[in-house]
Please model this.
Amino acid sequence: MTATRRLALLLQYDGAAFAGSQAQPALPTVQGALEHAVAELTHEQRRISLAGRTDAGVHAEGQVASFETSRQLPPHRWLRGLNHFLPQALAVQAVQTVADDFDPRRHAQEREYRYQLLIAPQRRPLEEQRAWRIPPPFSVEAARAALRLLPGQRDFAAFTTTDQQRPTLRNLRSAELHGGHGRYTLTFAADAFLQHQVRRMVGAIVDVARRRTRPDAFRATLDAAIPGSAGPTAPPKGLTLAVVRYDQSVLREWKTDHVHDCSQPA
Model:
């Protein structure tokens, strides 16, 4: 019997090219593209696992995937080979051998998402592909005041779908707004997120910042935790899965300045 090993991949992709990360029949997906590339490179049919699910149009800088293989190739061959067969909108940034029981979703300790906002009265064609443009007014102080209400372990049912079947208790570790001069980044970190949670939180925060929702009404909606009651849902183009963090003993934290350069033979 041929011995196998498990590999972890660090991925970056433009979500506009995909109907989401999870495989779907007859639709372009991240998982489908990866499984096709692995089959082309190795002549093996392997199932790809992902650290987190991203919806259609949502981007990633730090998505993590893993799969099992019997092929014994050095890291630079995996990197070059997979990227050769992947579409231009998706690329492997790093490759690492991991334990046989590594599960990118189950072993993840924290996920960080970033959302780009552009405050401008007129269209900005060169900037709007990756940001949600919002006409003024936009109160940074009101947005930050609302964000301070979010962190902690609580029921986030208000920020997910009305038909959510999973438990809605989550531990949001941080919710911050950075930037200036009309360009802002909302950053959220948590152990895990509910479906559409980040985009609904962004939509609700924007409504507070634009004075469409009173701060006390926002707090009441958060505390009531009625499924699907908060929003609106921000468009996917501004959202990026930035980082998935793991315990050092499981997988080193893959940030850009820590990624091993696989372009040359090890």
